[in-house]
Amino acid sequence: MLSLNVVPSSLSSVTFIKPNNQCLINASPNLKSNILSRIQSHKNHLQCHTTTFQLHESGFKSSKLSFMPTSQIPDSITKLSSFRRFLSYPFEVSPKPNHQIVKAASGDANHEGEREIVVNSNDPKSKKLKLALVFGLWYFQNIVFNIYNKKALNIFPFPWLLASFQLFVGSIWMLVLWSLKLQPCPKISKPFIIALLGPALFHTIGHISACVSFSKVAVSFTHVIKSAEPVFSVIFSSVLGDRYPIQVWLSILPIVLGCSLAAVTEVSFNAQGLWCALISNVGFVLRNIYSKRSLQNFKEVDGLNMYGWITIISLFYLFPVAIFVEGSQWIPGYYKAIEAIGKPTTFYIWVMLSGVFYHLYNQSSYQALDEISPLTFSVGNTMKRVVVIVSSVIVFRNPVRLLNGVGSAVAILGTFLYSQATAKKKVKKIEGEKKE
After folding, report:
1. What's the rounded Cα separation, in Å, for the pair 353 and 396?
2. Which positions ≥6 away from 129 have C-beta within 8 Å?
3. What is the spatial distance between Cα 387 and Cα 46, in angstroms, rounded to a whole number?
4. Which of 282, 299, 297, 293 is nearest to 198 (CA)?
């Protein structure tokens, strides 16, 4: 329990309100010096000393209450909010735009003395800068992962072990965030784990298939084939009862045409690489569909936590199979890789970067989806694939034929049209639910 002493610092009066109590502080300095006003002032002064406030904030043990100018309150609140947001999402560029309102009000809402300070962070320039930083970070992490993942696979062609290590790094990362309370840990229950088993299985299939594809063909070719994921999404969802407008069906035609042309003209074509990229598409599509159906009762778990638990369960799925498939070749393959590269530390750095940035770019994608609209996210996701394809061609100097480039461009264009059509469908659905 604390008693409140306030030293007046302005000419205006401020009223602090407590149920059935009013305490007027700092009457005008031009009060007439008469007995009545002095008595009233003394009375108010005594009331303020006898009024007590109970602090409910846990951990607050100080017996003094400090005040700051009201002009500094919005900045302090903004900084505190940004700091807490940073701790929860350590790789997020900035918090969502918000409105912060600070009031010093009298008992009557329409009183002259009421003051309202509105902090509006919806500045167009800051929003554009934030959007650029979010996409820039997301693209950078994706590029780093694809480059160093391919470099590691070129000298150590064991995708099952590398894919397992990437899931291991992601699992450790999330466990550290949860243990240090940098990310709120979701409540774990048996139904929740059971509901995750299906999505985690399909995630495992999608991840290992993509990794095997990367080990067999050029990074750019794998990403062109992976741009056909919307085709499988529409087909499987339609079989399960979802309906799509004609624009969506038309958008998948250039995807099929472009991927076919790119596959026929690919210099580094490998049948296993092609099929693994296609299987990866099927795995991730089924993961998304199954997640929507099996995790409907766990909407309180945010996307990042959901991905964290899927990563952990996927590791338990994948690593035992990896040992069975290629475990006997890991030690001889390791010595060959060290002999080929010369410096063991270089190999370790490549593998570590592939593991860390695999998790980071997935984490950033969830955070980007939280920050922006589905339509903007879909455009950014399409452009991300273009950036990764171009960067991988430049880094690895992969030869690209004219028809191969045309096919890749057509496939990416189809993906863009599909994302536009489906995002608009989602927006209309959300607006319809709000009206209801």
Report:
1. 17
2. none
3. 70
4. 293
Q: Kindly calculate the radius of gyration of the chain based on its CA atoms and give it in whole angstroms.
A: 29
- CA proximity to 248, closest of 407, 412, 384, 415: 415
Most confident of 17-31, 182-196, 258-272, 305-319: 305-319
Alpha carbons 281 and 225: distance in angstroms, whole number: 8
| CA–CA separation, 148 and 203 (whole Å) | 21
Half-sphere exposure of 43 (CA within 13 A, CB side): 7
What whole-number distance in Å separates Cα of residue 232 and Cα of residue 97? 36
Which residue from 329, 334, 360 is spatially nearest to 347, judged by alpha carbons?
A: 334
Q: Find the range with the poorest average confidence among 74-88, 390-404, 409-423.
A: 74-88
Q: How far is CA 309 from CA 170, 294, 321, 344, in A?
A: 10, 14, 19, 32
232-243: b (≥16 Cβ within 10 Å) or e: bbbeebeeeeee
Q: pTM of the prediction?
A: 0.69
Q: How far apart are CA 397 and CA 253, in angstroms?
A: 30
CA dihedral 304, 309, 310, 316 (to 10 degrees): 150
Q: Which pLDDT band holds residue 401 (cuts at 50, 70, 90)?
A: confident
The rounded distance, in Å, linking the Cα atoms of 255 and 261 is: 10
Asked whether residue 173 carries a pLDDT value surpassing 90, the answer given is yes
Q: Assess contact for 202 and 287: CB atoms under 8 A.
A: yes
